[in-house]
Amino acid sequence: MRRRLIAERAAFAAGDAAADASRALAAALAAVIVELEPDCLGVYSPMRHEFNVADALEADSRLAALDLALPFARRDPVAMEYRRWDRRVASLSDELGLPTGAGPRVVPDVVLVPCVGFSADGWRLGYGGGYFDRWLAAHPHVTSVGVAWSFAEIDAQAAAAAPHDQLLTLVVTERGVVGA
């Protein structure tokens, strides 16, 4: 299922509807972030045609001064933390080769979590490494906002397959908020 959803996302990104959907998701996500009023927002660097959260941050001027952090993933032991990010092009990479912030370690109060798939009740299907799930389990007070395309909605049983899987607080798609 994971491979199929990633392939669907790639096909969607190449299609005519992607630009309008991206604008709609940017507006919906910006509205959610403004409403949540985070002190520090954990974001992610998009890969494999994930939604670029920078579009949402640019969609509302009230988000221009928001403190941001990017994940830093470790391979051994498998772990993730957030590092403050100054919005410049990330010049550092984590142990998985993903761009990360150069600032100090921080714990955001709201994190945006990319979803390969998601269920209406907040279960998330990711890439299978468990990085976000382990981090969320260690930080239960954090508001977790899944970011996905609406076509990636799946059955809850298909999304929650591992013991370490964590429920998201809500999911935002181009069609609006799911599971709030």
Automatic annotation (TrEMBL):
SUPFAM superfamilies: NagB/RpiA/CoA transferase-like. It holds the Pfam family 5-FTHF_cyc-lig. Coiled coil: none annotated. Keywords: ATP-binding, Ligase, Magnesium, Metal-binding, Nucleotide-binding. GO terms for molecular function: 5-formyltetrahydrofolate cyclo-ligase activity; ATP binding; metal ion binding. Its cofactor is Mg(2+). The keyword Ligase applies. It catalyses: (6S)-5-formyl-5,6,7,8-tetrahydrofolate + ATP = (6R)-5,10-methenyltetrahydrofolate + ADP + phosphate. It is an enzyme of class 6 (ligase). Substrate binds at E50. It comes from the Bacteria. Its EC number is 6.3.3.2. The keyword ATP-binding applies. Belongs to the 5-formyltetrahydrofolate cyclo-ligase family. This is 5-formyltetrahydrofolate cyclo-ligase.
